């Protein structure tokens, strides 16, 4: 499907609009420690609007008049649509679509269906540790790709008419590459998102009637929340999980020409990974019981004892770690004197004290003795 110059021009307008909103939201957060190279990206992004609008031709203005005083048409006026025209066309088209909307339209997008794989997007994962800049940088890079689609779709006069914009896009992508190449978190977010899509399976989210037992468990217990916690894991560990999952997918498709997602070995691996890192399963016994109940009688019926053993093991480990963490939190008030050693605050307390516990023993709090109740003396009559 081809694109006319008017569609390309309009597409660039809206891409720049979304970038402007991203930058505004980013600056409002006032993040203190952005990644190295962020200032360069922000400086380049500030030049995008001037590069785009200043390159638009306006030679016919003296003949045809200004866009803000003329009737708006679908024709490509003055060498490119103006901000007034693009904004007004958007509002009018939106109003006409509401008026003419057919509720029984089979092509109507099903935006109302919840999709966990879209919710746990790469920008969302990058922002889990409070480092919002990383997520915004990725979204800016995505918008650069969108602008490239419109600007460089054809090697024609339209593309050659925006030399400065072309140059800026390349510089911004280069600055993004420098950050991507030096920050492990981008690789983590990519791997986690890829794993998430494979774990839910190709029939998710629309083909609900044909979901396998693993997908049903993930949906019912909102396992997608547990994927966000994987950002705290080491990149090498995540790579091992991802490679194992990809190999299982390839093997399943080799063994089965059709319905390969129901392959028993692949199902068991997907369920094993859920048991491996799902905090909700580790923490709550009623969820573990429900999961085992769903597995019984399913394609993973024979694997129930293995899964039960794995979940029990992980539950014990989780309980132990939780108790240990609570112990350090109780002693938090005793750690003020550790400022001299570089103690940075309660959010770093657990990891910091864990490394110092052999050097600086912290006594357990002494329980208070229960107060004796005074015996009430009965008045003599």
* CATH class categorisation of the largest domain: Mainly Alpha
**H and E string:** HHHHHHHHHHHHHHHHHHH
What is CATH's topology name of the largest domain?
A: Hypothetical Protein Ta1238, Chain: A
Question: What structural class results from the helix and strand content?
Answer: mainly alpha
Number of strand elements: 0
**Main sheet attributes: strand count, strand direction, barrel closure:** none
Under the CATH scheme, the architecture of the largest domain is Up-down Bundle
Note the beta-strand portion: under 5%
Please estimate the helix content.
Answer: 55-70%
Rounded to the nearest angstrom, the radius of gyration is 29 Å
Based on CA inertia axes, which overall geometry fits? globular
Features:
single chain; 381 residues; mainly alpha; Hypothetical Protein Ta1238, Chain: A; 2 domains
Describe the secondary-structure layout:
Elements lengths: L4 H25 L8 H8 L2 H7 L6 H4 L18 H18 L15 H4 L2 H5 L5 H20 L5 H4 L2 H20 L1 H17 L12 H8 L3 H5 L6 H21 L8 H14 L1 H5 L1 H11 L8 H27 L15 H11 L25
What does this structure look like?
The protein has 2 domains: 5-60 and 71-93 and 114-182, Hypothetical Protein Ta1238, Chain: A (Up-down Bundle); 188-327, no CATH class. It has 19 helices and no strands. It has 381 residues and is mainly α. Mean pLDDT is 81; it is low at 59-63 and 335-349. Helices cover 61% and strands 0% of the residues. Helix 15 runs parallel beside helix 18.
